[in-house]
Amino acid sequence: MISVVVPTYREAANLRLVAEAVDAALAGLADEYELLFIDDDSQDGSEEICSELCKRFPARIVVRKGVRGLATAVIHGIAVSSGDIVVVMDADLSHPPSAIPTMVERLQRGDSDFVLGSRYIEGGSIHDDWSVFRKLNSLIPSVLTRPLCPLKDPMSGFFAFRRTDMPAAGLLSPIGYKIGLEIYVKGNFNDPSEVPIHFADRQRGESKLSLKEQLNFLRHLGRLYAYRLRFGMKS
Ligand SMILES: Nc1nc2c(ncn2[C@@H]2O[C@H](COP(=O)(O)OP(=O)(O)OP(=O)(O)O)[C@@H](O)[C@H]2O)c(=O)[nH]1
Ligand SMILES: [Mg+2]
Questions:
Q1: What is the pLDDT of residues 36-48, one digit of tens each?
Q2: How far is the CA of 115 from the centre of ligand 2 (A)?
Q3: Which of the residues 71, 106, 181, 235 could staple to 150 if both were Cys, CB 3.0 to 4.6 A apart?
């Protein structure tokens, strides 16, 4: 079974489109799938929309009350999902579900143990009207993480791995919005790989990426470096 874990906060306008696109990509595969929205009590109609969606798709919504945070939502979603393969993606349709079959196939064939949807390898792309600021905002953290990880787009929130390689919950100290990197650094991964994606800009709903989150990312990175210096560098 493939578990697709999608953190959501005020994504009511996107849920149906995500469910349809995931179903179009995965319904034909030999493995079954489940789609989990991990919602931080958005109160924007997301729950009602999901109760309709779950009649048509193997989808459900898990609502967390009194907590907020993308990273902890993803960890919670992984914990309550049940597939042997876990895929994490955003709800704003930036990540193309059509890439999931390739990601899953690599894991199943043993070609790779951590597969990332990547903007920055050959064949990958971003919308060509990104401002210089937005590009730097995406590239600088990638450069800062290079010693931790050989991947070209380590900030990507679109990744897949086998549940058995997930780091123990006690090892994780999620802050902020980049959890894929932490799972990679602390998990049992030796053969990471990237699948090129076109990263589509969000069309509906609002971005939750704030300056505070970006500063949090630097704190998070400091912790990951401390972890690696203690337990040895991986790459
Ligand atoms: N559960 C939960 N999900 C969140 C939270 N913050 C963001 N998300 C979800 O995480 C995903 C990524 O958030 P975005 O706002 O798109 O952040 P981003 O992709 O870095 O920024 P943009 O490029 O502006 O889209 C989306 O599916 C959000 O709904 C949160 O506090 N809790
Ligand atoms: Mg986004």
A1: 999 999 999 999 9
A2: 19
A3: 235
